[in-house]
Amino acid sequence: MSKKVLIAGESWMSHTTHVKGFDSFTTSVYEEGIKWLRDALEGGGYEVTFLPNHIAGEAFPYTVEELNEYDAVILSDIGANTLLLPTDTFMRSQARPNRLNVIADYVQEGGSLCMVGGYLTFMGIDAKGQYNHTAVAEILPVAMFDRDDRMENPQGVIPVIESDHEIFNGIPKEWPAFLGYNQTKAIVEGQVLATVNGDPFVAIREVGKGKTSVFTSDCSPHWAPPEFVNWEHYKTFWVNMMDWMCK
Fold first, then answer.
1. Which secondary-structure segment (H or E) carries 28?
2. Phi, psi of 189 (to 5 degrees)
3. CATH topology of domain 4-12+28-246
4. What are phi and psi of 104, to 5 degrees?
5. What is the pTM assigned to this prediction?
6. For residue 164, what pLDDT band results from cuts at 50, 70 and 90?
7. 23 Cβ partners below 8 Å, 6+ apart?
8. In angstroms, what CA-CA distances link 136 with 90, 99, 122, 165, 230?
9. Are strands 11-20 and 72-76 parallel, antiparallel or unpaired?
């Protein structure tokens, strides 16, 4: 039986104003960045359920029992507020379960969580990711800063593999360059497997009966350029990561 992974985030909507002299008009577009990660995991035999940001706010599980339907959860470019403020709470002042606490309990009881970097994970742009000082922050293998943690590297920065961990089986030590990442801090409870500019890039941790991991750059553009998402070892890395998390 294939193992199940729940991915939340990796989507956005843009509303653009075009100005052409005297006249202007607007266009709107909905986009997803899930293709590469989903294809990699499904190609590795995993069953993937995807909750884009505008759906996750209401549809992300509210109980550990619901999360137990999945062997692993991936949060990628989804802010903490999307999970903390469902419509019932934000619009109707009704109490609802804190889903970040639920995720932490799920991991403590044997589940797995991976946080992937982006403008709205970790602390993110203008610190709007807001995961610090939450239950999720307490179970990650790294610590976050209380600020905008983006490290933009338009010149490109190459990760350094620091370990022979099984997550890197079949993958060369020479990786493509990335265009940015979320800066975090190593902690004694976690194990840093790869660094970028001396900061954690890939890190793992065993928490209670479960596991957590982080990949502090993007799994899709823009921080992850075509050289990474189309890299022949992209699938191998993500499947290895899930295999370690789910065993």
1. strand 23-32
2. -75, -20
3. Rossmann fold (3.40.50)
4. -65, -40
5. 0.96
6. very high
7. none
8. 21, 10, 10, 24, 30
9. unpaired
